[in-house]
Amino acid sequence: MNKSFSTFNVVSLIIGYAFLYIPILLLVIYSFNESRLVTVWSGFSSKWYGELWQNEELLDAAKVTLQVGLVASTLATILGTIAGVVLTRFGNFTGRILFNGMIYAPLVMPEVIVGLSLLLMFITISVDRGYWTVTLAHTTFSMCYVAVVIQSRLSSFDRSIEEAAMDLGCPPLKTFFLITLPVIMPAVVSAWLLSFTLSLDDLVISSFATGPGATTLPMKIFSQMRLGVTPQINAVSTILIGLVATGVTISSVIRKRQEVRKL
Amino acid sequence: MPEINSQVRQTWAPWNQPDKKPFVRIENLSKTFDDIVVINNISLTIYEGEFFSLLGPSGCGKTTLLRMLAGFETPDAGRIVIDGEDMSNVPPYRRPINMMFQSYALFPHLSVEQNIAFGLKQDRMAKADIQARVEQMLALVKLQGFGKRKPEQLSGGQKQRVALARSLAKNPKLLLLDEPLGALDKKLREETRFELMTIQENLGVTFIIVTHDQEEAMTVSSRVAVMEQGQLAQVATPADIYEYPNSRHVAEFIGAINLFAAQLETVETDRATFRVAGIDLPICTGRSVNAAVGETLWIGIRPEKMRISRTAPEKTGENMLTGEVWDIAYLGNLSVFVVRLDNGKMVRVQWTNRTRSPEADISWNDRVYVSWAADAAMAMRH
């Protein structure tokens, strides 16, 4: 544990992190560039952030993204929590292994496959693609993450407190809302944040599931890239990075705190 | 065997009164988990106001039996009747029973007050009444002023008290306690035992306690059920269990005992004599036994009922063996001598240290006489 780092370790650590984070850092720095050219630095300015507010298309895309994110992660949290509870609390019901596998499968399934199959399904049942199909698609894949988080929380959960509640006259469903849910709330919140973040930056699945009038921010950014990168893209990406980083940080802090409390 | 049922004088013993109706009736209860028989055809009656212990090593099925009473496990066969009502189809939250869990199972997100009030709220009791009852329970377990604390701010002993208060708040007819003192340290455990007894006596609630600690069971119980591999080995008062165990297993599980395999030689109305291989003198018991001459039985003598001396005891009619001191354990209040008898068998003899100088004056390798009164020995078939 208290072994000091060797030079080799330090150098490889620095190179590794540099490889990962220098591009992101550059993107953030150039979002404050005065020049229109993304590769030439000509002085500090926050004008691209200002211009962002004039860009209706980008703002619309941001609005869609946030709406989809809020609805999808809330739905995913509810469904994923139920799935997690079923997997940990209902014993060995018939089809449990199949259900478990089906919950985990989307985690490892290539996004292109998930997106394509969703698209095919939407076409088959002939729904108009747009805001709701994107939301549904996001719910589908983030639900798995929620289920995993809730399942791992519940497997370390002291069941005797649920039994104690029932013993004191509380029926099972009420016990879930009065006892289980409040105790696992931090995990639920952290799962919600996780799915919100996932929804926020999804590009592949959204591209398949979307239709007219429901362009999410990542899709917008990607399509603008084809017309050349403008510093506005840098600015909007910086904001996205900020949002995602905040979400992930809060979610992990909540989980850490919970672990500390359990000790 | 002849030695059954209340040999020791009882003052309060509803289980000996045929007209008394049992409060809890367990009938032919069985439970199997993954092909392992955990509870094997148990029948048991428990009376109102009893402090009843289920005692046994871990894995003997005692906790499963308790959980079936609470309704958390469903029996495979048999039924449980509480206060005249068949509990078979009654879910845990409708049983007139409360349970105190081994882990205490306090609700971590609720304060001490809210924990105690939880069950009362389920009964839709009026707010003011709940408040009064909570105060009363806090006073009962001597935790006044702790109501606003969260469980994580309490010590182990305090948590134990909150758990007790919570399980008693609804004034259950029957309280189940799963190793209630198991998580406390020795000193606190001993103090809490007496408190538990006082509370039980004052409230008159029937207690069923699960424990693996024989001292705890002996101290608190009106009756003890010794469990062994899913069955009841013996159900009797602590004194009866100790002095008149019905099998070797029970005798060995409760306290220490010296056992001899002995052949029955003569049977009279008030005594029986036995012959032990390798020992010249016969061993006799102070009462008759219900067995045929020539049968091999087990003779047991508790270490504290044996005497050790360097000279032959003067009293006649006593059992006497000779041997050599093999080991001595000085425990302060008493000393335990391990004596190697002439036939090679080891026996333990307990000596109470009544004075501060070593009265016994016995040392390693001394030749000693081990003796005991005839009625100190018990005969067991199994």
Number of strands of chain B: 20
CATH architecture of chain A, by name, is: Orthogonal Bundle
Question: Helix- and strand-based class of chain B?
Answer: alpha+beta
Would you identify the regions of chain A where 5 or more consecutive residues have pLDDT less than 50? none
State the end-to-end CA separation of chain B.
10 Å
**Average pLDDT rating of chain A:** 87
Low-confidence stretches of chain B at least 5 residues in length (pLDDT < 50)? 1-6
Explained architecture:
The complex is a heterodimer of chains A (263) and B (382). Chain A is mostly helical and 263 residues long. Chain A has helices at 7-30, 47-52, 56-89, 96-108, 111-124, 131-155, 160-167, 172-200, 204-209, 217-225, 231-262. Chain A is globular. With 382 residues, chain B is α+β, with helices and mostly antiparallel strands. Helix content of chain B is 22%, strand content 32%. In chain B, helix 2 packs across helix 3 (127-140) and helix 3 crosses helix 4 (156-169). Chain B starts with 23 loop residues before the first strand and ends with a strand. The relative contact order of chain B is 0.12.
Topology (SSEs and partners):
The complex is a heterodimer of chains A (263) and B (382).
Chain A: H1 7-30, H2 47-52, H3 56-89, H4 96-108, H5 111-124, H6 131-155, H7 160-167, H8 172-200, H9 204-209, H10 217-225, H11 231-262
Helix pairs in contact in A: 3-6, 3-8, 3-10, 4-6, 6-8, 7-8, 8-11
Chain B: E1 24-33, E2 36-46, E3 51-55, H1 62-70, E4 77-82, E5 85-86, E6 97-100, H2 112-122, H3 127-140, H4 156-169, E7 174-178, H5 186-203, E8 206-211, H6 214-220, E9 223-228, E10 231-236, H7 238-243, H8 248-253, E11 258-267, E12 272-276, E13 283-285, E14 296-301, E15 307-309, E16 319-330, E17 334-341, E18 346-352, E19 367-372, E20 378-380
Parallel strand pairs in B: 3-8, 3-9, 6-7, 7-8
Antiparallel strand pairs in B: 1-2, 1-4, 4-5, 9-10, 11-12, 11-14, 12-13, 14-20, 15-19, 16-17, 16-19, 17-18
